[in-house]
Amino acid sequence: MKRMFPIKAEILAVEDLQVRKESTIPGGGDRFFARSHPISVHMASESGDGNCSAWAARDPSGVLSPYKFNRRSVQSGDVSLKITHCGVCYADVIWTRNVHNDSIYPVVPGHEIAGVVTEVGSDVKGFKVGDHIGVGTYVNSCRNCENCNSSLENHCPESVFTYNRIDTDGTVTKGGYSTHIVVHERYCFKIPDGYPLAKAAPLLCAGITVYTPMVRHNMNQPGKSLGVIGLGGLGHMAVKFGKAFGLKVTVFSTSESKRDEAINLLGADNFVISSNTQQMESLKNSLHFIVDTAAGDHPFDAYLSLLKVGGVMALVGFPSEIKLHPTSLNLGSRTLSGSITGGTKDIQEMVNFCAANKIYPEIEIIKIDYINEALARLVKRDVKYRFVIDIENSFK
Ligand SMILES: [Zn+2]
Ligand SMILES: [Zn+2]
Questions:
Q1: Residues with CB under 5 A from ligand 2 (ion)
Q2: Alpha-carbon torsion (195, 137, 69, 74), positive or negative
Q3: pTM for this entry
């Protein structure tokens, strides 16, 4: 696909550097954050009464309020989706509050989208009206690079995030806190019959974010052992996948209050308070795998020392930096690996796996008028384990 705005893209790239220098974004997160655009970017098509009702943040206060805008009409390869549910991800806090200095207001967040197909373009092969489908963290890519050709669209240099990015038609993408969305069918995923749409929503970001590295690093080997750091939206899905893969799962948390649910609700085999050095010491060289979902800064050496020889720790969060002693990797030939969301093939595989194995995220359903409280609670990690907005009943 040809980039339609080469000149603008170049100007933005220069400003990128400035934004990135001033922000606290770690260099390693460049694919996730590098497409910084100045806040002043404004597209004429955004204003006025539109065909789509939404809630948007207007400025870095991050406060959301009702907003209307226009979605494009359905093109030949597009699917139009009536959104019934949208999960609330920590990314929604980041971009409504301009944490990375790249928010393009008004920001309509939401990239855990589930709903029902209402219209398909003439070339659409995979979906029909009435199908239940999901849309995740990206809605476009070049469709012609090495990564796209390997179903790794999440790593395409031209991939377009579901909101707060400039799409190939020049419009700013707007996410799932809205009544409908129009997306090329390549970035839509079939939700099998009988899988509740409310529970499907968190699979599209939280689910795939932990599923991808777990499968890539062969963590689906029954009998092996997995550590999960952090027990939020991502962590609780890692525990569920771990149990479905037949692993012995140990949860590492800072909060004793999560012990009961980790074991009795989520099915973890073991629960460890990470500040308890005695407990940590007793687990040295005992784990085959670790999935690190912690968003905040934390030591790495202590966790890496828990891995057996050849063990793998997969990082899916964005701490401000990673500091570790080389011996933590070299002794034991351990691997520290990163990952972000997943390609289209993996997303569909993960959704199908959840349906086949009856894996359901734990959710708290809210209406859109509770979203400001919900985001505030998310910042305090006061959610078990994912807020999902009942979009269908919020805009009546
Ligand atoms: Zn997300
Ligand atoms: Zn590509």
A1: 141-142, 145, 148, 156
A2: negative
A3: 0.88
